[in-house]
Fold this sequence. Notes:
Elements: E1 11-15, E2 18-22, E3 29-32, E4 43-45, H1 49-52, E5 56-60, E6 69-74, E7 79-87, E8 101-105, E9 108-109, E10 121-130, E11 134-141, E12 145-155, H2 165-176, E13 184-187, E14 190-193, H3 197-208, E15 213-217, H4 242-245, H5 260-272, E16 277-281, E17 283-291, E18 294-302, E19 308-312, E20 315-318, H6 324-328, E21 333-334, H7 340-343, H8 351-354, E22 366-367, E23 370-374, H9 385-391, E24 398-399, E25 404-405, H10 416-435, E26 443-448, E27 459-460, H11 468-472, E28 480-484, E29 488-493, E30 506-511, E31 516-519, E32 531-533, H12 551-571, H13 575-581, H14 583-591
Parallel strand pairs: 13-19, 14-15, 14-20, 15-16, 20-32
Antiparallel strand pairs: 1-2, 3-12, 4-5, 5-12, 6-11, 7-10, 7-12, 8-9, 8-11, 17-18, 18-19, 21-27, 22-25, 23-24, 23-26, 28-31, 29-30
Amino acid sequence: MNTKTICIKPVITFIGILLISFQLYSQEILIETESFTDKGGWVVDPQFVEQMGSPYLMAHGIGKPVENAKTTFSIHKKGNYHIWVRTMNWAPGNWETPGKFQLKIENNTFSKVLGTSKKWDWEYVGEYEFSNKKTSIELIDLTGFNGRCDAIYFSKNKITPPSKSIELKKWREKLTKSNKPPKKTENFDLVIVGGGIAGCAAAISAAEQGLNVALIHDRPVLGGNASGEIRVHTEGIYGYFERILKMIDTDHYPNGSSEAYDDDDKRMKNIKSYKNIHLFLNWRAYDASSKNNLIKFVDAKHTSTSERIRFKAPLFVDSTGDGWVGFWSNANFMYGRESKSTFNEGWEKHGELWSPKIADNFVMGSSVLWGSKEMEFTSKFPQVPWALEVAKQHAAANGEWKWEFSRNDLNQIDDAEQIRDHMLKAIFGSFYNEKQKEGNEKLALEWVSYLVGKRESRRLVGDYIYTFNDVKNQTKFEDAVVLEKRSVDVHYQQKLNNPEKPNFLSEALFYRTTGYQLPYRSLYSKNINNLFMAGRDFSCSHIGLGGPRVMNTTGQMGAAVGYAASICKKYNTNPRVVYENHLNELMKLVKSSSKQKQNN
């Protein structure tokens, strides 16, 4: 290990994959828990980095304590250190904290119970005398109910680290030197951020046309909502892209089924078969830089090791769902329900549930799927008073698409952790109620996702904003690259109409149709000249998203922009010029997609 000290500046050293920082006089050590070498039963949750500052470890044991997370680290200077842990109590109230855990160093378990702060904050653990340079550390889960630990901080001085987001971000960046540009830069023809169905389809179509593609995804598996981690089956038709979409879609299994794992394997095998698709799994984009309406690069960080890479390309695809690449690069976007007069999308049959008189921040909500099964033996489930505040008297043994949460005062991006935690309370409370019924002694939770399955958030603005009127009026587009016949399907919370209903279940409004088209002009940014979007962040109104938001349809979007990217490269031009000067070539390529063969 090579270390050196320079004045007061932090010095970084890597022990295995641990990120640890030292300072000359204060002897600080910061351990990011996602870098633990043995995570035991804890999982890495990177969903809320933009809000709380980092991925973190979570003890997602669905009611049973998980195995300890463990790692080792080296002490730069022996002696007495004060210890803090950044954590939170995700269900505060007059009951036992559901996410409690303890810290163990070497063979010593601290009596301090952690996970009690009402928000993300530093909890003081105590002091410890380090006599060995190499030291082991463990997280001990006490409940199995989603205890979470972001970081562990050691310092010879008893000075609590900053809590406020801006100060914490600066402090963290200083310790880890992440305020400097990534040392490594990769260059590609096309950079795709988001490995859901849309991102995978874009990667395949672009790769088949010879482009060198980077596919960046923040999970260990591809598919997004269709993955074995979230388990929503793909819906919609294939349009012109049946051959491509069948490589990455799912069977029509019940939502929440473990059959999703088989499709994970199929999807991964097919993506990896393309030598010019460079797959970056467990990498989360965290920034994009634009100048003169052009994205120059996207920066991404590994969700465990904190290694960083700068990705450069003449063209980018935002398939993040939340429109992050567009947001960071200052692309125009929309959020929420437009007023009835904005696009004249009213439908009297459903009144203001369809389009309100005044615009608001309601959007279709996020789901967390789950399921249970009958065991051969009696299965116990603990009391969950902290969950019953949400579930109340509702009882259930599994959750389908109706398990969904949205609220006017909650943003599906900024408040996503609170939304996810609300759904966890609904799940655990409803299952507890179900267990109280006679005959359910052998019923046990089989699986609960901890990932948010989102339907709607940011929608990036393109040259054309797709609306419900285009469905209703059967608008024909010369640049129709996506075809669909699925009903427009707009969700809303049951509680909006009936205060007696649980506030975690939704209903849907349906508009039947024989089919509709989506234009290519809705798949590239209006003001960022080298940005495509494919997925639920495409250019549309709230109601316009109701039909095309499902995954086979967004996969069509991805395949179309992959082909458009190849034309951009051919003529050294941008997405808009493809529409203006090369539309016939794009449409010919799109319509011949089923006849294309893999180009490996």
